[in-house]
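Q: What structure does this chain adopt?
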Amino acid sequence: MITVGSFDFPESVLLAYLYAGALSARGYAVRVLPDLGSRELVEPALMTGLIQLVPEYTGSALEFVSLGRVHATASVATTAGNLQRWMGTRGIIVARPAAAQDANAIVVTAATAARYRLRTVSDLITVAPSLVFGGPPECPERPYCLQGLRRVYGLRFRAFAGLDTGGTLTRQALEGGEISAALLFTTDPAIRGQHLVVLADNRGLQPAENVVPVLGRATAERYGTGLIAALNAVSARLSTPTLMALDAQVELDGLSPNVVAERWLRDQGLTSPGRGSRPPDQRLTRPGQGPS
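A:
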């Protein structure tokens, strides 16, 4: 049985079902454990074999696995190559990165942008001391969240509100005025739907964040090249606009991630109904509760 784990935000759950569904269609026994928690919980579970596969993001994963010794850059190839080398030292195989990227975005409402004349993250420097910043609880310890905002932009906010990982709580707090700026994800369909303003990362804090499946070396060796080929087939078809459209079906239309994943895989010819394939086990075990 191949266990696919996800982080605790909707897009990660969706990606877990995409990769799991592709494997299931090729006859592999697969189960999905969604919403396991942050990277600090999920990656150790992968490295110790408690789970076998995780959909990751290249830049944030590299920063984590290298313990900050190697900083990811905007170069897709360099970041992916460095990730492959560092993951290899931990017994992890990196499959093909997708063209799809989902990075951190610093977001404000249109009213806040107009009031303070905000267009770039640098524009926050004079007003940050009077603003409350919201994001995932782990944001203060993350190099591409508050740590990076201080290091690269010199930003120090009046307060930080730990909410959720680019989710409903953060968006509601932003719209309700409880926070003035927030960390969301660039593929979040609510950014466009709620007319939020993404401040330009004019000093290049955020790295390449290509979606990529990572799996234990033991799993790859046990199941052979067909396993990697099935994962790569999904990545080859996954662009950023495609990912945004799939996210919208989950987050705006209210469809379940496994249903959205199943439909997309079928449309892409990556499942073969009637030929012995079966959907992945959809159990909802949650031992705990992204890119940041």
